[in-house]
Amino acid sequence: MVKQLGRAALAGMVVGVIVLGLGGRLAMRFVALLIHQAPHLGVGASLGILLIGGILGTLAGAAYGVVLQRRWPARVTAKGFLFGSVLFSVLVLLQPPAIRAEVAAARDQWWVIIPLFWAVCVGYALVLARQLSAEREFATVSQQPGR
């Protein structure tokens, strides 16, 4: 169980930096252009977003490893869509007040913003689910006698 949790957290961190961090940063850039706001693409801010993606990815990866990876008998894609949707919902609820104010100010563009960030969360969960599924299959094959 501990080994499984560690693998899920590590995979979550790597996928989180790439998909949540980089994908989230690109989504923010797109939204800034959409609402005609000057995008802030400083190195410090971008590294901060990547760091947040890694932290959130680690926590979400650990949660996925404990809750869904083995216990829920569904296809990897279904798990990814479910987990990504739940992750999006949780992140929406945990937004700091400053981000809530920015999102509220862009209310006319919600038809793009909401699906865009939902897609980032679902993309993270799909990549994570596939990664952990591939690792589990590899571990199963390597433990078979005669290999």
Output the number of helix runs.
5
Low-confidence stretches: none
**What percentage of amino acids are in beta strands?**
under 5%
Instruction: Quickly count the domains.
Output: 1
**Total beta strand runs:** 0
| Average predicted local confidence, pLDDT | 87
Radius of gyration over C-alpha positions, nearest whole angstrom: 17 Å
How does the overall form come out from the CA principal axes? elongated
* Largest β-sheet summary: none
**Coarse structural class:** mainly alpha
Please outline the helices and strands:
Blueprint: H1 2-34, H2 43-67, H3 76-93, H4 97-105, H5 110-142
Overall description:
- The protein has 5 helices and no strands.
- With 147 residues, the protein is mainly alpha-helical.
- The longest helix has 33 residues, at 2-34.
- Helix content is 80%, strand content 0%.
- It has one domain.
- It has helices at 2-34, 43-67, 76-93, 97-105, 110-142.
Sum this structure up briefly.
This protein is mainly α and 147 residues long. 80% of the residues lie in helices and 0% in strands. The protein starts with a helix and ends in a 5-residue tail after the last helix.
Keywords for this entry:
147 residues; mainly alpha; single chain; elongated; 5 helices
